[in-house]
Design goal:
mainly alpha; disordered C terminus; Four Helix Bundle (Hemerythrin (Met), subunit A); 250 residues; CDP-OH_P_trans
């Protein structure tokens, strides 16, 4: 029974960190760097819980639903609040509320689709909400260096990517051997310690691979569409070449 509960403990830790991230952006606290770090550590928990469940053969519908509910808070609500607290309060209230709310709404829609629609083997359909939330939370740390219009556009683009049909590689299938599960708590403790000691620098460093992952899906989607366009152009050129001799011979 205890073994079966271990994956859920990581999921609950993910949810706990998401709630702490929200608390850390309240005006009385105002620690966006630490809040972003909580989202990053929650990503680690989210990546670990499924792998631990598979290693212990403890997968369940309960765990799946709990994971989705936790993700909405940790990677939907928390990152949106972080961005709102550091950047969007300068906007018109209606615009700020709509853009802020749109992100967790799209995240919830993406998770609902993930739970009921079977995806492609090895791929996610749409940008996974942990990656989108990680990008938004860490992007907020650059609010002094990036124009407000860019932050708004980035939030909207990330929201759209989550509910898009763009394929993203699924690294969750990379499992953890059962005899190596003891390493997981050590990794978690080390990452948490680094996150608390260097929240500002570590969050900004992690921003880079997360953005590259988001852009990778866009690039692959464009690459898949380009061959079709090239084929169409070739066919059009062939038809034109065949039509020209006919006109001359007439």
């Amino acid at each position: 029974m205890i073994t079966k509960s271990i994956p859920s403990l990581f999921t609950v830790a993910n949810l706990f960190l998401g709630i702490i991230a929200v608390i850390l952006v309240f005006p009385d606290n105002a620690k966006p760097e630490l809040a972003a770090m909580m989202v990053i550590i929650a990503m680690l928990m989210d990546g670990v819980d499924g792998r631990v469940a598979r290693a212990l053969n403890a997968q369940s519908e309960f765990g799946k639903e709990l994971d989705s509910l936790s993700d909405v808070i940790s990677f939907g609500v928390a990152p949106a609040f972080i961005m709102y607290s550091v950047a969007f309060q300068e906007l018109n209230s209606a615009a700020a509320w709509i853009i802020t709310a749109l992100f967790p709404i799209c995240g919830a829609l993406r998770l609902a689709r993930f739970n009921v629609v079977s995806g492609m083997p090895g791929y996610f359909i749409g940008l996974p909400i942990p990656a989108a939330g990680g990008v938004l939370a860490t992007l907020a740390l650059f609010h002094k260096d990036i124009a407000l219009s860019v932050l708004m556009a980035s939030t909207l683009v990330l929201s759209c990517l989550m509910v898009s049909t763009i394929r993203y590689p699924n690294f969750k299938k990379l499992g953890i051997p059962k005899n190596a599960i003891w390493v997981v708590p050590i990794i978690v403790v080390v990452v948490v310690a680094l996150g608390i000691l260097f929240p500002h620098h570590l969050s900004k460093i992690i921003f880079v691979p997360l953005v590259l992952y988001a852009l990778y899906g866009l690039k692959k989607n464009v690459d898949r569409r380009l061959p079709n366009r090239k084929r169409k152009r070739r066919l059009e050129n062939q038809l034109q070449e065949e039509a020209v001799p006919g006109e001359h011979s007439a």
